[in-house]
Design goal:
The chain is α+β, with helices and mostly antiparallel strands. It has one domain. 18% of the residues lie in helices and 23% in strands. The protein is built from 2 helices and 4 strands; from the N terminus they run αββββα.
């Protein structure tokens, strides 16, 4: 699931607004490059958390108020699953 779809799943969509119109959307400038981010999604200081200004806004827009953990942290911890069932024919020690 991509990042904007995860935001929609958690917070819904806000029709008629784009992310650039939300208070959680911001731009960081490093040297000659500009990086766009969403405070609610999180900032890992990598391109993995770069944000498009033209995304349709999630349900938090336009105020952008959210007091939980950054969504990127939720996504990171939610993707790991451990399957304890042994494979057929697998030897256990």
């Amino acid at each position: 699931m991509n990042k904007i779809d995860l935001m929609y799943r958690l917070f819904g969509k806000k029709g008629g607004l784009m992310c650039c119109e939300c208070k959680a959307f911001y731009r960081n400038r490093y040297g000659t490059r500009t990086y766009r981010k969403c405070r609610n999604y999180g900032d890992s200081r990598s391109t993995g958390t770069d944000w498009k200004a033209t995304y349709q806004a999630c349900g938090l827009a336009p105020s952008g108020e959210y007091n939980g953990n950054p969504v990127v942290e939720i996504a990171k911890h939610g993707t790991k699953t451990k399957d304890d069932t042994p494979l057929e024919g697998q030897v256990t020690l």
